[in-house]
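Input/output pair, single chain:
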Amino acid sequence: MAAPEFALVIGDKNWSSWSLRPWLLMRQASVPFDEIRIRLRRADTKAAILAVSPTGLVPALKWRGETIVDSLAICETIADLFPARKLWPADALMRAVARAAAAEMHAGFGALRRDMPMAILDRHPGQGHTDEALADAGRVVRLWCDLRSRFGRQIPGDQGFLFGHFTVADAMYAPVVTRLQTYEVDLAALGDDGQARAYMDAVLTLPAMRDWIAGAETEEKAKA
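Output:
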C-alpha cells in the first residue's frame, strides 16, 4: 500500500485544540494521512516541534515537500484539494457566512480560550466561568443557534451541523464543544433554545471525534 500523501503533525489530543481541527476535518472527509504526534508541556517540546514546523507550533501539514502551518490554512487546503468532499457549503452566500464563522473562531474568543482551555478528558464544573469567558460562550451559543435555524435545519438531509452537513466551520468549533462540556457551561442561561445542545451532541457523536477522544485516553494512560 502506498504511503499517504499527507502527514499531520499534532500535539496531545487532550489539550491541543488547534490540532483537533484539521485532524477531525481530514478524518471526517476520509483523507488518508500519517499522524506525527509531539508531546506537549515537556522540556523538549519546542525543539521537537521546530524540527518539523518552522513556526514552532502545531498543527502542521506535510505535503509535497512543503509544510503548511495554521489550522485554518490546513483546512482550506484540504477543502481546495478535495472539492467532492463538500467541506464548504455549495451556495455562495452560505459559503461566505460559513467562512466568516470559521474566521471568527480562528481570530476571536480569547477569554474563552484563556479561562476554559481544552481538556477533553477532564471535568471542571464551574471553573473558568469568568464574565469575559461566559460572554464569549454566549456569542458562540447564539451563533450556533442562528446558523442552525437559518441554514442547517433548512438543508435537505440535514445532519445536525451548522450548515447541514459537516464543513470546515464545524471543525473550527469542535474544540469549543469540548470546552463547554468540560466546564459544564449552562447553555440555557446563555440563550440556548436546545439547538446548541443538539449541535454539541452531533459533534461529540461523530465517529472521528470519538476516535480522537479514545486517542486522548490512550495517551494519558501512557503517561502513567
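Residues 131-150 form the longest helix (20 residues). Strands lie at 6-10, 33-37, 60-63, 66-69.
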